[in-house]
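Quick note —
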Amino acid sequence: MSAYAVELATLMTIFSFVIVSPGADLAMVLRQSVVHGRKAAIITSFGLGISLLFHISYTILGLGVIISRSVALFNIVKWCGVAYLVYIGIRALRAGTVQKASPPNRNVAAEQNSVPEQGMIKAFVLGFATNALNPKPVFFFLSVFATVVSVHTPAMIRFGYGLVMASCLIVWFVGVSYFMTTPRMRAAFSRASKWIDRVSGVVFISLGLKLATEKAN
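Predicted structure written out below.
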């Protein structure tokens, strides 16, 4: 087994725990699935994956070190992230019941048509911004790459690692999107849509407040 394969396997072992851990990314995909349906949730998942490549790219280029060492730059990114999470949290809290429980004789297609439409660009931006405005991935990639990846590993190989990680992130959240939008899950969540908005709003605001306490190293 080559050294690169060992590095990738180690990275993916660590990253697999990061993917499934609760956070703003998962909260966003869950809410997109419940409120706007499968298509919006899948597009948001791609936004999250592309945003991960964004983090990896500037980390490889060395800009991640600059951000982590500069209190001013770190705080700019951090407070943008805080403002964004609190904003979408407040919007969720203000949202009313998004979908009534469907009568037993309604078909799946009719139920899906009752889901509020959301543009592809907006769904993608929601996913991208949720991850891009979070400075925590900077420290994750800096620490993981410094620990696992050799300094002699070429930049293109490192970017290849990132591409695999981003692809796995997309696959995971697409899977979550499909599961959360099955007829049985949609029927269950539609009955509690008002409370789901409230809970997701509290979660986003809490994540924003938690991010506000983060400090640059």
